[in-house]
Amino acid sequence: MAIINWRFQWRGISPNIKKYIIWKLAQIRLTIQSLTYNEHMSQSYVIDCLLEPIFWIVDNFAGNLGQVFVFCVSVLTAAVVFIAYWIGLPFWWQRDPYTTIFLVLMGNWLLLNIIFHYYKGVTTSPGYPPHGTMISEAASICKKCISPKPPRTHHCSVCDRCILAMDHHCPWLNNCVGYYNARHFFLYMVYMVAGVSFVIIFGFEIGFQVLWLYDPSANIPHNDPDLIGHPVRINQTGALIPIKDIVEYDSVNFPREHNLPVPITSELQLISSDPWKRKAVIFMAVTCLSVFFALGTLVIWHGKNISRGETSIESHINAKLRKTPRNVYRNPYNFGRRKNWKLFLGLIQGRTFIRHILLPSGHKPSGTGLTWHTIHNVMEDWP
């Protein structure tokens, strides 16, 4: 009789299973790569393929949606102005007429700048490279237009054209933000943030009363119940004696006049008691706070880009270039914060901040957007 002794190696089975799984996964990966091989395959190419449906929606519907967005901005702005005059003006006039005059002048100054810069941002062409002419400083060839691109020029898929110094395509303007209308776009956002801040500050008391301290039973005028009882009189001992005979006529047989003090109804009570005005105050609060946070964030973002002398597109490109191993990249259009702002706002050639920034001004930026001064070839007297 033969006895066979055998021993199962538990310690070696786990590494073998792991190696087998890794080998099978490598086979699957190699098979997929063999069937889908493309010499242009990269991470950016894969992302572009996955985002292709989004690009198709933007290319086909963004142009039509832009007109709807412009209409919505116009209606919302008109509604806020109407409610400010309907509710805010009587409230401040009852409080102090002189302060009201100052607020009306300041509010209309902000409104004038908002309307002007929004209109210019919508109607002003951002700037396009000329066709059929020689471009002396072409940076590259546009793959979609098949034409030379000047420096800082990018192709807009919505407009289907190359845009000079393109920042982005803004659906709220139904227009690209580029070389000739970037100042109007930025100043529109600045004045809009200032305008909603103005409404929030000087309408805070109204909103606090209506939205926080509102009491429907106390603020509705003429809602006191009819008094039931009998008139009384107090004698010298302090006792209450009912009046049985009420004299309705005076000594000359004229009806008596009872001049009783009537409490003054404040404008806040009228606003709180009116359901339509309450809804208007809620609408103003939601709209102004939303615009303040949304556009306020964009103002800070674009302000940082202007300080660095770059557009939104260039900020993404330059951020990648700054991460190079040697970190030697320097933006050739960054002349320093002060000069970058002067160039962006067009405060050159004798223009002043009061006349051309605080007041509506349609001045254009200097140059053509086809050639650019850089930190390497800047002239001494420029700008």
Provide a short characterization of the protein structure.
The chain has twelve helices and eight strands.
Q: In what range is the share of β-strand residues?
A: 5-15%
Q: Report the strand count.
A: 8
Largest sheet: 2 strands, antiparallel
**Spans of 5+ residues with little confidence (pLDDT < 50)?**
none
Write the layout of secondary structure elements.
Layout: H1 13-35, H2 43-50, H3 52-95, H4 97-123, E1 140-141, E2 148-149, E3 154-156, E4 161-163, E5 168-170, E6 175-177, H5 182-202, H6 204-211, H7 216-219, E7 232-234, E8 240-242, H8 267-273, H9 275-307, H10 312-321, H11 337-345, H12 353-358
Antiparallel strand pairs: 1-2, 3-4, 5-6, 7-8
Helix pairs in contact: 3-4, 3-9, 4-5, 5-9, 6-9
Provide keyphrases for this structure.
single chain, 383 residues, mainly alpha, two-stranded antiparallel sheet, two-stranded antiparallel ribbon, 12 helices, 8 strands, 52% helix, 6% strand
Report on this model:
The strands form 4 sheets. Strands 1-2 form a two-stranded antiparallel sheet. A two-stranded antiparallel sheet has the order 3-4. The protein is built from 12 helices and 8 strands. Helix 3 (52-95) packs antiparallel against helix 4 (97-123) and helix 5 (182-202) crosses helix 9 (275-307). Strand 3 (154-156) and strand 4 form a beta hairpin. The model has no long low-confidence stretch (mean pLDDT 81). It has 383 residues and is mainly alpha-helical. The chain has helices at 13-35, 43-50, 52-95, 97-123, 182-202, 204-211, 216-219, 267-273, 275-307, 312-321, 337-345, 353-358, and strands at residues 140-141, 148-149, 154-156, 161-163, 168-170, 175-177, 232-234, 240-242.
